[in-house]
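Q: My hope is that you can spare some time for a protein that puzzles me. Underneath my words sits a plain record pairing an amino acid chain with its backbone structure tokens. Those tokens are not coordinates but codes from a learned vocabulary of shapes. Thank you; the sequence and its tokens follow:
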Amino acid sequence: MSEQFSVKKYLRDLPLPFCPGCGAMTVMSEFLRAVHELGHDDLSKFVFCSGIGCSAWIPSPYFMADSVHTLHGRSIPAATGIKLMRPDVDVVVFGGDGDIVGIGLSHFIHAARRNLDIFVIMVNNMIYGMTGGQVAPTTPFKSITTTTPYGSFEHPLDAARLAVTAGACYVARWTTAQPNELKESMKKALGIRGFRFVEAVSQCPTAFGRRAGFKNAGEMLKWFKENVIPIHQAEKMTEEALGGKIVVGEFIQRQRPTLVENIYKAIEEAQEGNEKS
């Protein structure tokens, strides 16, 4: 577009809540940049849903748009109702790893299975950042958190591969050290119908980083760059060799009938049947 991009065009004049160095700022900026490059002058065609957590503050109340701030882990059910009643709007869910695949895991799985026509952006900071730095489903093995002072003894959940298995139409994962790739995946997801999932592995210098021994956000971004593995390369590596690495790239893109299409088709067929009888 000829007009120069500015996040201020899409944001309310409010002070943002994020800690210095938080990766949520990158995710917010790249999403709005994607929207801008797709030609949206405003956010009037979108409805945003979010739950509880640092990343849930990305759209609400800061985007100049309709948004719903829900209970912890319940953003996808809210998005389901909105999309079924208003299939004409683009429904986008923002949330952290604890919100989306912790307390909200079952909703995530079933939305992918149903191919609900929404776009879920998960900011994976690998910890419960806002509520005290507790271990999360995505926390790396042996990482120190407030609830695992001797290191996490659980292996992390691979949300991207779970989304593929559950039935998502588009799945990608990038880190905040790859902002352009992240933006391009968001643009692609916004142009596709069905359940779309983009995971952004993000630095959290306040809750995760300092406990993991990182001095600042810059060190975490360097760690991302040194440990990312493209998906095509990862497919040739052993599980042992991939330990501690971050597999990035586009995991899948496919077409399936959406939940909204199936429901409205069933309604139409039922109405036609009633008219004939």
User: Anything to note?
Assistant: The longest strand covers residues 246-253. The chain has one domain: 17-276.
